Amino acid sequence: MFYSQHIQAQQIPLYIGTYTQKNESKGIYTYSFNTKTGDATLLSETETSSPSFLARHKNILLAANELTDGNQSVSAFRIEDGKLNFINKLPTTGSAPCHVIIDKKGKYAVVSNYLGGALDLYAIDANGHINQNDHKKYSGSSVDTKRQEAPHIHSAFQGPDGNIYVSDLGTDLIHVLAVKLEDGKYKFNEIETIQTPKGAGPRHIAFHPNKKYFYALMEMSADVVVYEKTGNSWKQKQVINMNAEGFSGKDGAADVKISKDGKYLYASNRVDANTISTFAVQKDGSLNKIQVQSVLGKGPRNFNFSPDQNFVLVGNQLSNEVVIFKRDKKTGSLSDSGKRIQAFKPVCLIF
């Protein structure tokens, strides 16, 4: 009995969001992932249009349907017996919704729209139904007239302080908002705006577990910008590039995550680089680049740790494959496990 329970505990669900295309991908793919071997077995397929980002809280999963044809939306599912059962779907107020989070208590969701400058706020009821509660519409631009002609909201992450940190690639700003329950509805309340380097294009962020630092990934410059909490505000501490020495190609930095112990930070870069970089986090929160690893494919849009952090799974969008790296917890370094998951345009991986 102990043996069978032990084996069962090694198998955990993995959800992969894709860009859908007829005869290629239907939507969300649920796998059983073996935390000991790194093997993955397909359990089910869920039809939903271009679920480019996923968020999960207990048995509720949300998907941002990244469309631009008027059907852009956020979809809610209930996880039951290895399958996703549809609950409801609502439109977003912007276009190309590319990111969704669920707050730590599972009470609300925030959806970022890459087009239209819109940020959407949905309440989640006890049954997993989503209801639109509030939205914000941003304006502005920055120095790159081609890519920063208007706001491009790329992500929203909940910080350890409970606030929502919104990265706007189009204006080089990170907006900090509180979410409050007022008269039975959740509302946005902007409390701070953080400037990032001009022309850098903030995309995603990661918070240090000690709550003193956060790391903002710049898509256009492939820099990681370190911010330190000083009093009640955040101050820029360091800017470090993620590329190998001598790299001169085009950048498209995509994702950034920090290990649970706060010792190592990882960041992916697409276009000509196709790498995932490892940084050692110093005691003062600053970064030291220690490895630039090929992702062994093209277009590493999203990556994630396995829950035990022994593996890093990289979704290579343009080579239609998830590459699974072994992770050395002591040194932070990544090495090829030899394991792969074949998937059409994999762009989000969550456990």
Notes on the structure:
This is Lactonase family protein. InterPro entries: Cycloisomerase_2, Lactonase_7-beta_prop, N2O_reductase_N, WD40/YVTN_repeat-like_dom_sf. Keywords: Carbohydrate metabolism, Glucose metabolism. The protein is built from one helix and 28 strands. It has 351 residues and is an all-beta fold. It starts with a helix and ends with a strand.
Highlighted features:
351 residues; mainly beta; 2% helix; disordered N terminus
The oligomerization state is: single chain
Number of helices: 1
Q: Supply Rg.
A: 19 Å
* Proportion of residues in helical segments: under 10%
Tally of strands: 28
Strand content: over 45%
Helix-strand string: HEEEEEEEEEEEEEEEEEEEEEEEEEEEE
The coarse overall form would be: globular
- How far apart the termini lie comes to 26 Å
Average pLDDT metric: 96
InterPro entries: Cycloisomerase_2, Lactonase_7-beta_prop, N2O_reductase_N, WD40/YVTN_repeat-like_dom_sf
Keywords: Carbohydrate metabolism, Glucose metabolism
Protein name: Lactonase family protein
Pfam family, one: Lactonase
